[in-house]
Amino acid sequence: xxxxxxxxxxxxxxxxxxMPALYxxxxxxxxxxxxxxxxxxxxxxxxxxxxxxxxxxxGVSYGTELIGAPQGAGVFIACMVGLLGVETSRAAAQKLxxxxxxSL
Length: 104
Fold this sequence. Notes:
Elements: H1 5-38, H2 43-62, H3 74-84, H4 86-103
Helix pairs in contact: 1-2, 1-3, 2-3
């Protein structure tokens, strides 16, 4: 790949566009890891919860406008997903969706 600078240019442009989402997902992942360790969770919970929180963090960082939050709030919301965990985030999303559907 050193002889193909267009590949490096493409990778650099892709990273520049998607860095906020990757950053948000990474932070959600690390916060979930520390939360599970702090609360004394098992290795199985750590192996499942942290990647799920990281992936949810990437997702919510792209969907901030859907809930009426500014684009810059994506990292904060992703960190809250990591702090609260998958089950709490699922319950909050369900409550939000139920409220939106009822208002239609």
